[in-house]
């Protein structure tokens, strides 16, 4: 998204929240969702003006809007009551990744998108300890697809190293293991 990183503004001021205008890009929808923006979706017909098209005419855009709306509903407590820490969970800056994380007292939500145009996989590196305390030093990492379905769950230590596939967007929910 052009215009810089507006996540700090959105996390400090509950209203008005910044918004982005989207014509027909599913990738822009996913990026704006990760950044917690309001979306103004004004599709246009080829050669037409903004608002002259229908969302239904762009199946990939329609699918991305439905997926992001479903994920927001599923993980709403993070967006409403959580603390946005953006990409501060990372210990190394990845090239081409877009990431936002939200913390609740006993869990963490990470939204990640491979926004690279090179078609490469992007390794991520994170340290969970400063953001989520676990008496055992163990964390349960749950990975969800864009439909909100649980794909995998694994136990991990405080150093977390997932990899984003080409053009992939994933949702991770991380819980501190009490025992």
Helix residue percentage: 10-25%
Segments where pLDDT lies below 50 for 5+ residues?
Answer: none
| Residue share in β-strands | 25-35%
- Please identify, by name, the CATH architecture of the largest domain: Sandwich
Rg value: 17 Å
Structural class: alpha+beta
**How many strands appear in the DSSP assignment?**
12
- Order of strands, main sheet, comes to 3-4-5-12-8-9
Main β-sheet: number of strands, strand sense, barrel status? 6 strands, antiparallel
Amino- and carboxy-terminal Cα gap: 41 Å
- Identify the CATH homologous superfamily of the largest domain: Golgi alpha-mannosidase II
Query: What's the CATH topology name of the largest domain?
Result: Immunoglobulin-like
In N-to-C order, the SSE pattern is HEHEHHEEEEEEEEEE
Give the rounded overall mean pLDDT: 87
CATH class of the largest domain: Mainly Beta
CA-based shape: globular
Number of domains: 2
The total of helices stands at: 4
Structure report:
By secondary structure, the protein is α+β, with helices and mostly antiparallel strands. It folds into two domains: 7-73, no CATH class; 77-176, Golgi alpha-mannosidase II (Immunoglobulin-like). The protein has four helices and twelve strands, in the order αβαβααββββββββββ. It has a six-stranded antiparallel β-sheet. Strands 1-2 form a two-stranded parallel sheet. A hairpin with a 2-residue loop joins strand 4 and strand 5. Helix 2 packs parallel to helix 3 (59-74). The protein is globular. The termini are far apart. The mean pLDDT is 87.
């Amino acid at each position: 998204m052009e215009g810089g990183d507006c996540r700090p503004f959105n996390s400090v001021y509950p209203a008005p929240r910044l918004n982005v205008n989207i014509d027909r890009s599913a990738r822009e929808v996913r990026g704006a969702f990760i950044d917690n923006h309001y979306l103004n979706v004004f599709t246009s017909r080829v050669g037409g003006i903004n608002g002259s098209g229908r969302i239904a005419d762009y199946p990939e855009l329609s699918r991305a809007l439905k997926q992001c709306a479903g994920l927001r509903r599923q993980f709403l407590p993070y967006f409403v009551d959580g603390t946005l820490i953006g990409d501060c969970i990372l210990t190394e800056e990845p090239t081409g990744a877009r990431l936002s994380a939200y913390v609740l007292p006993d869990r963490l939500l990470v939204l990640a998108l491979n926004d690279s145009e090179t078609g490469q996989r992007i390794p991520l590196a994170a340290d969970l300890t400063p953001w989520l305390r676990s008496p055992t030093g163990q964390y349960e990492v749950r990975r969800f697809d864009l439909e909100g379905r649980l794909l995998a769950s694994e136990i991990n230590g405080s150093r977390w190293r997932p990899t984003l596939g080409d053009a992939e967007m994933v949702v991770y929910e991380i819980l501190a293991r009490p025992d």
